[in-house]
Amino acid sequence: MHGLFEDPAAGGALTGVTPAPVLDATSNVLADAVEHHLDTGSILQLLDRR
Prior knowledge:
Helix content: 55-70%
């Protein structure tokens, strides 16, 4: 059952209402926040030094 309602088509088939894809929107908000607050350039430079 885990994740079943993350698929809008499955949720719509079960409830008759197709929900908005919340997981994608939430993931985008999280990714934007991480990108804004994390120095990804420095992290990438550290990874290139390996």
